Input
Amino acid sequence: MFRIEQLGEPKFKSPLQLSTVRGDKIFNFIKDSDRLVLDLSLEHYNQILHTGEEPPSLEKAGPRQDIFYDPKKVTAAIVTCGGLCPGINNVIRGVVMALHYFYGVKRIIGVPYGYEGLNPEKGHKLVELSPDNVKEIHQFGGTFLGSSRGGQDVSIMVDTLEANNVDMLFAIGGDGTLKGVNAIGEEIKKRNAQISVVGIPKTIDNDIDLIDESFGFETAFDVASPIIRDAHNEATGAYNGIAIVKLMGRDSGFIAASAALAMPVVNFVLIPEMDFSLEGENGFLKALEARLVRKKHALIVVAEGAGQHLFEEKSTVKDASGNIKHSDIGLFLKAKIEEHFADKDITIKYIDPSYIVRSAPANSGDSVYTNRLAYHAVHGAMAGKTKFMACKVNNQYVYIPISEVTKKRKKIDLEGEFWFSVLQSTGQPFFMG
Amino acid sequence: MFRIEQLGEPKFKSPLQLSTVRGDKIFNFIKDSDRLVLDLSLEHYNQILHTGEEPPSLEKAGPRQDIFYDPKKVTAAIVTCGGLCPGINNVIRGVVMALHYFYGVKRIIGVPYGYEGLNPEKGHKLVELSPDNVKEIHQFGGTFLGSSRGGQDVSIMVDTLEANNVDMLFAIGGDGTLKGVNAIGEEIKKRNAQISVVGIPKTIDNDIDLIDESFGFETAFDVASPIIRDAHNEATGAYNGIAIVKLMGRDSGFIAASAALAMPVVNFVLIPEMDFSLEGENGFLKALEARLVRKKHALIVVAEGAGQHLFEEKSTVKDASGNIKHSDIGLFLKAKIEEHFADKDITIKYIDPSYIVRSAPANSGDSVYTNRLAYHAVHGAMAGKTKFMACKVNNQYVYIPISEVTKKRKKIDLEGEFWFSVLQSTGQPFFMG
Amino acid sequence: MFRIEQLGEPKFKSPLQLSTVRGDKIFNFIKDSDRLVLDLSLEHYNQILHTGEEPPSLEKAGPRQDIFYDPKKVTAAIVTCGGLCPGINNVIRGVVMALHYFYGVKRIIGVPYGYEGLNPEKGHKLVELSPDNVKEIHQFGGTFLGSSRGGQDVSIMVDTLEANNVDMLFAIGGDGTLKGVNAIGEEIKKRNAQISVVGIPKTIDNDIDLIDESFGFETAFDVASPIIRDAHNEATGAYNGIAIVKLMGRDSGFIAASAALAMPVVNFVLIPEMDFSLEGENGFLKALEARLVRKKHALIVVAEGAGQHLFEEKSTVKDASGNIKHSDIGLFLKAKIEEHFADKDITIKYIDPSYIVRSAPANSGDSVYTNRLAYHAVHGAMAGKTKFMACKVNNQYVYIPISEVTKKRKKIDLEGEFWFSVLQSTGQPFFMG
Amino acid sequence: MFRIEQLGEPKFKSPLQLSTVRGDKIFNFIKDSDRLVLDLSLEHYNQILHTGEEPPSLEKAGPRQDIFYDPKKVTAAIVTCGGLCPGINNVIRGVVMALHYFYGVKRIIGVPYGYEGLNPEKGHKLVELSPDNVKEIHQFGGTFLGSSRGGQDVSIMVDTLEANNVDMLFAIGGDGTLKGVNAIGEEIKKRNAQISVVGIPKTIDNDIDLIDESFGFETAFDVASPIIRDAHNEATGAYNGIAIVKLMGRDSGFIAASAALAMPVVNFVLIPEMDFSLEGENGFLKALEARLVRKKHALIVVAEGAGQHLFEEKSTVKDASGNIKHSDIGLFLKAKIEEHFADKDITIKYIDPSYIVRSAPANSGDSVYTNRLAYHAVHGAMAGKTKFMACKVNNQYVYIPISEVTKKRKKIDLEGEFWFSVLQSTGQPFFMG
Output
């Protein structure tokens, strides 16, 4: 469980001048046997003590003393897939810097426009990456390499990797991308090729299972925060002013909830995890009404995936990544509120920052995080690990098999401390319905 | 021409300890005869020289030595009307500080929710303003007093002013508000009441005639600037990526044009002043096509009022301020582009920051500007001037009769230097159609 | 070990409408027996399993079903001590909101100017706190209550608490403050008074032991980050340009190191934990020289406490908090570099942002964090816990006895992953000396 | 007066597709005879009318129909000199874009490290500039080309220009640089070479005579503004807390004064133009004392060049640009305040943002401004004008002979409206001494 697959036995000495003993003020190489338990609860510990089983644990990330590749001969490739997310360029930069400066890798290929770039039919040209052309990209949002949604034929992609003598592929992307890179890894295994595939999980929604947080997520609510602050001005600026801010969050409401907690002037947060009704004595509209009577204004933050159960007909349209396109809860909510208060003097302002959030450059927290993720991804790949992901769990950097995190998406636990803190901040009822 | 109306002869000495001579390092009182010519062109000067006429000129703003009111007995009122705009709170604060600290005014009334607050039927309560409750409001967007759109019965409003012994009313608002305050001034004159009415022009669109710039406008494109910077990331992040940013600008494209010039990665700016076609050999879509072939991405900034001539049926719906609601050019454009490139592989991202821009706090330039505007408004009112506006023309603070600036809205001169600089920056064709 | 002291048996039912079962989508009350192990390493786990000892663990933070106080009768007090740190106002606001809205506490006292405010001789007046006067303070840096350095007579302070019928004291402060509030707790115990004392650890240097991070620390390097970005412009703007940025960090270099990692254009980071020489073949100056030859510019970030061993005479001056005042390493370094390169054409720019960093408002990450800290502090106090601290360890909110974290200061582990990531980012030698 | 020198008769048709008639919605070429009067006062107008003299006027900036150079054969050079200032990169970018896209200029040379780059002995290599390598530099502070202080031998510099077939030199710099480029222009004239020299005035202090504002100045006080906002937190955070912020301003206090007006929480602004005493009944220290008694805190903003008359010995040390290095008024003030209040309980925080302000990227207002300045500079140079400057006067873009603006530095008029508005904002006495 949680064992990382290895392409083969490490055959080379790491060029890194590190240590193997404590006390010399030099960082120690990490051993594959350095592992960290996943569940911190004392209760769990006591259970384990009782049964004698080994607790679930994760492999610590970091440089290995023995590595699989001869660094001087390595060709690495980087691909970025799916929607934009703050920090992608920081990861690209970090991977390039680590390959070049730590390991002396000479050839680094940038795959343009996502997995499309690995399909020759699409006609995009591979680009050369070096410290010189990536050194300033961390200051920009977006992706230096371009991106695309959806997958390509796995066999063709592996053909392209082989044709270009790629030894390791770093794939920055979300759920779909990670599944894709895992499939590429499987195909490589079938062919007995020695290409390491590494995932760096990217989802602005923060919905990747098991890990603490995905990069870009903190920037997302950092960017959303002044938008909410000023939406509050729209709400208070009119008598019975109502402002609705729609934020990202297809299946998980982390951005909406965190932004509301970060700028605690929000009165209602609606997220996909919640079941709520508009109508009825305990419904949202009554709660909103009570708020207006009391305070003459209200600020609502709604995640794009919230309230899909309220639509009579379920959407079945899919986007290029294969996700079902949601019906627009923001406009729906606005219409329902207008209807409900048709005979009252209210003013509604609807704010949909959409792409503004995801195309921003990484903030400082995410910059630190992406640098460290990138370094760890490179160390793992050089050691010959494959189909793994570099990430942070319980505030520690670890490697996890990709297959372990793509089983389900992370959601806000409605009974957890985080959601409780959001409810405490907004003062909204526990249930509306 | 451009003469400011006076409630009566000044009867009191200004409490300000200023000077009347140059050279003593103390600011001099301004005289009503201190005027500044409006037209700077030498050609105009030579014409005037020839005809002997007096050139059009404006009264310099600033404190007068003789004032109309006994400051200790003054009751002042402030009202903010119409949509939000960065800097409203700075003006409120500035007016309160100037009244309180410079002139020792004891009673300052805040009128809640725009002109509605002057109509007792609406049930809003007047609030007391003092340095203490406004001292930090300049750091927030929105309006501390609340606002509303549209007018109220002039007679009722003057009744309210009289009932509350108001001596001077400061109205912060756009075209409609200024017309309203002028009408209030006329009614006051009819009643022979001695209430000064002062306008402080507020329009985020920067479309008030004659003046250099309206406050909040610079903040508007300052806030839009990083949104455009990041929209560029959306455009370049996909193969044939197109990003469309819709910005405010009902009848004038100043925000869109300035934002494009401030963040010169924009390829097309479309404004209300422009006549353009989508179709045809020289139409916008062909120009966009050429851009994509050359660069594989494009960034379009469109003012909300642009391209209304493209809609088959003209909108006739009006908003609460009496302005015709525009058809949505942003979504229209998106649809037309999708249609045009239906058989090509393109990606469109549509970004509509809307209220995000107007609810932001004032930037530093606007903060300096609003403070000075507020001070000048107070000096003018204390001197007994009425139905005037404090503003900046040719980089100088002046007073203008309100009636002079509400004749027509300012628009971008398509033959002027400003629009030319925008065209130089975007590289778009002079004409598209 | 790590057991929280309790004032007495809880006698009241919590007014919070929470749950005690999983699955009802309502947050569950936390039990005192809910604990989390401190050490995550599998190795440690296995050792413990072997010996059968209970592993060190911490009490989970959160609301208890049974509480010690009758909320309606509670008087709470808040005090903020020591230097400014981003997020103090957020904590004040969070504590007030939690007391008022969750528990219905009627009386909340703000202690002005730190511990001085508990000493009547100082003449400061206690202030009343309510949602109304704290609702917007989270948008400002600094402390709404004012602060002071150093302690006051413990007995006098407890007299003041008793004289004002205070039931719980929330103290926001660093190492000294926490020791102080612990001493107050001891005195209270001696008197058999039933006053809960709670610490909320505040240190911009992030040097409090055991905990993940202290609030305000992330904002600190977020504020420092653009300063470093622009210092890079100073370095590259001149031939052989050298920019030195001095950042906070008396005994621990977390801010300097994190800022350098967040804005990875830094070439050297010097921190208090490091031993380094200026002179010699492997000294800093030679390393700098090599950098200039290669790249013609260099950017150095130095923590204020770095290199104190380089001064011939140790500073013995103490500040008001009893900390030894450091000799100025920034100016010293500048002088030494000038001396070393006396015959070369170099340009040095010295940048000391000092108070700019600590007086800033909290960023979004810290805002979320401070809200949750404040809520947990209140829940713990209401439950009758005392001499404890609310904090985050291994990414989970827990309570720790104050006495456990004041034993020593947290420092950067020179053999740890964090410092290694900084060295990877800067490319500076492991040792300079 | 104010006549621009011309290298010779224009011989070529402008490649710009502009118009010569009004009404066709195409920008019109500007004629040399299009001029704007300098003094707007009606009084001046009337005087002039009386005497029949032509009023002082300035040549309108913009593209000329007939140009001096054959654009396809032009080699242009750009040099940036002196200290950093926000917006330099925007000007570089704007000049390159205008030369390349408007006029089709093929060869653009970047001169590295200021005038040093024109002295071959210094060994710096000229760089090629193109849209590709400057397209993103507007997002960064500093100068892409590097800079240096002081001049080089004029004859050598002209040799270098001739050796590289340079036809036009754009020099971005302050007073010294402008004098330098004028001297280069004189030497060129002597040699009868046909090289246009153009100044783009750069001074963060805003002290260039005649012009409205220099670029970068607005960004400067925009960057200073939150520093002042937070310094206020330092002042209020302690009992009798005093914060001192030192800002740039060698001979003119524009930054300090504007920043104080932009963030109106400042209580005292001290600028070089002011004469003030520390001691005495009306001195600064008594005024500060009164403020502390009243409000318990004070915020002082001091320009670096203020109060030089207070030092017993005048500084005579000069910097590389030949400016006398000022004694440090900030630290002096701090010491004097400490001394004065030695027996009182006060806390002083001294904040010196120094390089932080000048190395920042341009804000949106300055971005618009620098783009337009750059375009106008290029149009003027292509027309064969020389020894002129592109700038803005009375809110209009004009050309001025460099020699006219280097006669004296612009200072704040202590009797002017701007300084009066600052005094109104701070509430400080008109005189302190």
